[in-house]
């Protein structure tokens, strides 16, 4: 055993010297390190921008209140306040989101709310460049999932073929050393190099982003290690076929394209076909049509429909005026109710698609790793849907706050602004999703490494 370890250390040291002499590989590792640092910088900068944006919202609310206090210096009709006063449902990012932005670059981090219909406000987003959304943001998770395998391919495509093509393998195998020991030493050096780079970037990213040092640190590192092991398993499988370096390079790049590009695209198309989702645009259009139709319907019909939902306000005075705020907000809410089932189906459809992808992402470790990183960071789809549900509850709380003023004809004073409900939502991590991702990655690693070892046993390494 000691002799075997001595040979292993000699081979490992030889690989180190060979790596230092290969300037192209050193440059490639430096390039990956630089892109990883940029990914960390971009992610932390984006989250800092969002936090700055969210931190400014209370001041915007305060200014809005100050303007309304000037506009209505005395006691005012609560209907006027509810129409002109705006507040915000805010989605605070978890510090881990700086390392894996997920959907935080696509979905809004806050929703501006008034007492009007909810869904037009809930689904209103700022315009964004569609090409930018398609390519995604360049965060640390992107570097680890999509670029790190390319470095592994560059380091491992000629694992044995280079020595065979240069005639060195014949001399090497003439020594008292087993071929599997040679392969193990070469893989061990490359694995140590890649894990060192990935670990360094992960630690720097965690310190830079100021993440809490909880159990997610171990989960993030475990996901990174298993993902790297998977790609080294792929290298082992291709190496076991003992083909020329050019063939190995093409094969490995083909596997990368299939697992990182082709399978995710086909998976997206199949999931979209299997789990159709109602169009969000149809939902908002229908709500607007329902609200606009409210102007032409008899007030008695509108209020009776509203009182069926809120019987506690049925004893309020009959509306005889041409316009009254409680009638206006009643048909606004009825517009929301008209599309409530459609909105629920839309959310269920999105969640069903996500669940189906989680069931099928074993076919693509890249999707599995990316979704697991997003789950740890609280930047995935379930977290956004949870925020929307929280914003809906906040809108309900606003209505519950204003309705007594509207239906009891109570005047709204300056002191009442301070009693208005506020909202805050912080992304929770989806730890169960991350744990399932770890298990699926472990199965992928076991499968591909087992296949590689089996091929090495069936196809003994030879100099030619």
TrEMBL record:
It comes from the Bacteria. This is ABC transporter permease. The keyword ATP-binding does not apply. PANTHER family: ABC TRANSPORTER PERMEASE, ABC-2 TYPE TRANSPORT SYSTEM PERMEASE PROTEIN. The chain crosses the membrane at residues 21-41, 140-160, 187-211, 217-239, 246-267. InterPro entries: DUF3526. It comes from Hymenobacter swuensis DY53. Coiled coil: none annotated. Keywords: Membrane, Transmembrane, Transmembrane helix. It holds the Pfam family DUF3526.
């Amino acid at each position: 055993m000691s002799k075997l370890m001595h040979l292993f250390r000699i081979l490992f040291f030889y690989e180190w010297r060979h790596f230092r002499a290969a300037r192209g590989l050193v440059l490639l590792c430096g390039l990956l390190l630089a892109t990883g640092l940029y990914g960390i910088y971009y992610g932390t900068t984006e989250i800092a921008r969002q936090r700055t944006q969210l931190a400014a919202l209370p001041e915007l609310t305060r200014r809005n209140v100050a303007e309304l206090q000037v506009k209505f210096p005395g006691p005012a009709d609560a209907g006027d306040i509810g129409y002109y006063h705006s507040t915000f449902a805010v989605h605070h990012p978890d510090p881990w989101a700086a390392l894996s932005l997920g959907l935080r670059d696509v979905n809004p981090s806050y929703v501006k709310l008034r007492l009007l219909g909810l869904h037009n406000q809930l689904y209103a987003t700022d315009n964004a460049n569609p090409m930018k959304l398609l390519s995604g943001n360049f965060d640390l998770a992107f570097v680890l999932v999509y670029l790190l395998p390319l470095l592994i391919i560059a380091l491992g495509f000629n694992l044995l073929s280079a020595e065979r093509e240069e005639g060195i393998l014949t001399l090497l195998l003439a020594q008292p050393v087993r071929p599997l020991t040679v392969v193990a030493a070469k893989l061990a050096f490359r694995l140590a190099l890649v894990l060192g780079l990935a670990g360094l970037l992960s630690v720097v990213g965690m310190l830079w982003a100021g993440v809490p040092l909880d159990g997610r640190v171990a989960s993030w590192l475990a996901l990174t290690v298993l993902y790297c092991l998977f790609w080294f398993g792929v290298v082992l499988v291709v190496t076991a076929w003992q083909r020329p370096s050019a063939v190995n390079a093409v094969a490995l790049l083909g596997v990368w394209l299939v697992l990182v590009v082709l399978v995710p695209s086909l998976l997206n198309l199949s999931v979209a076909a299997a789990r159709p989702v109602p169009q969000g645009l149809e939902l908002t259009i229908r709500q607007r049509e329902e609200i606009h139709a409210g102007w032409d319907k008899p007030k008695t019909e509108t209020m009776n429909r509203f009182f069926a939902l809120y019987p506690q306000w049925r004893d309020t005075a009959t509306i005889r005026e041409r316009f009254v705020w409680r009638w206006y907000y009643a048909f606004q809410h009825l517009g929301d109710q008209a599309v409530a089932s459609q909105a629920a189906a839309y959310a269920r459809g999105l969640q069903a698609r996500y669940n189906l992808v989680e069931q099928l992402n074993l076919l693509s470790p890249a999707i599995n790793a990316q979704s697991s990183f997003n789950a740890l960071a609280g930047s995935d789809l379930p977290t956004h849907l949870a925020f929307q549900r929280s914003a809906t509850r906040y809108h309900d709380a606003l209505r519950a706050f204003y309705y007594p003023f509207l239906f009891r004809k109570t005047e709204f004073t300056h002191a009442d602004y301070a009693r208005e409900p506020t909202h805050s939502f912080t992304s929770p991590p989806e730890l169960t999703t991350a744990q399932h991702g770890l298990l699926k990655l472990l199965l992928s690693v076991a499968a591909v490494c087992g296949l590689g070892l089996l091929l090495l046993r069936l196809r003994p390494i030879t100099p030619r």
